[in-house]
Specification:
With about 300 residues, this protein is an alpha/beta fold. The protein has helices at about 20-25, 30, 50-55, 90-100, 135-140, 160-165, 190-205, 205-220, 230-235, 260; strands at about 5, 15, 35-40, 40-45, 60-65, 70-75, 80-85, 150, 255, 265. It has two domains: about 5-75, no CATH class; about 80-295, 3-Layer(aba) Sandwich (Beta-lactamase). A three-stranded mixed β-sheet has the order 1-3-4. The chain has a three-stranded mixed β-sheet with strand order 2-5-6, with no helix packed on it. It has a two-stranded antiparallel ribbon with strand order 7-10.
Amino acid sequence: MMLVLRLAFPLLIIALFFASSVLLAAEPTAIESGLVVSVQGEEKRVGLDQALALLKVPSVSIALIDEGRIAFGDGATPDTLYQAASPSKVVAAIGAMRLVEAGTLTLDEDLNAKLTSWRVPSNDFDATLKVTLRGLLSMTGGIGVPGFLGCEVGAPLPSLTQILDGTPPANSPPVTVIAVPGSAYHYSGGGYEIAEALMQDVTGKPFPKVMQDLVLCPIGMTASSFAQPLDAVLAAKAASGHFSDGKELPGRWHAFPEHAGCGRRRPTSPSSWCSSPMSGRGSLRSFFTARRCSRS
């Protein structure tokens, strides 16, 4: 049996999720062979090492998750920190849902009822239907700004309000309502930045601390962090960013003060994700009932 991964652009982290027990029975070597990569429009079937060379990807981390458990994992080094990029939104959404579970937030309330540091600027699109947390998390809230470029190391970092308003030193446009809430799906990193502001406002804590308390610590992901910029300890463990031609990014990476949308760093070690995502202490099923993180 052969597992096929199609890699059309450089990747730093590959996570494999399969529902079929037949596929899950595959040996790790099957994951590392028969990869289909696209190079200048031409598809080639190669092994993992050759795929990385062709795509000029300097390192990769792989995990095979079998029925909720990590069956196989391999990475650059166990402590290497990668930028999680948009999967940061998943963690942010879980944090928001914990606040909903606690009764601190509701899914269908007008966001401006709870926002204090910033307000969603109203226009004709939301004259009748208001932007809600449900809309933000599902990207159906009618909010613009799909993504963010990040900031070069050493450059001034914008505040969350500057990001939302699109004012310098932010390098992205203002986050506004661009469609009737609930009318359509619009991929929106900007929406998750509104969610970040909402969570900070109702908890009175910086967003990295909110995520540490609500998600990362209870689920056992203690090596992950939303800290931006990286301190010296985290920077020493961080993987460098690269362009598609293999050249290293000046300054090694960009800082992303847009925490909820793309600001998380996580290590390559699969054990750092949590030993079982679906059962036990470090699990999606159990951590909604966790109320504090044990400190040993």
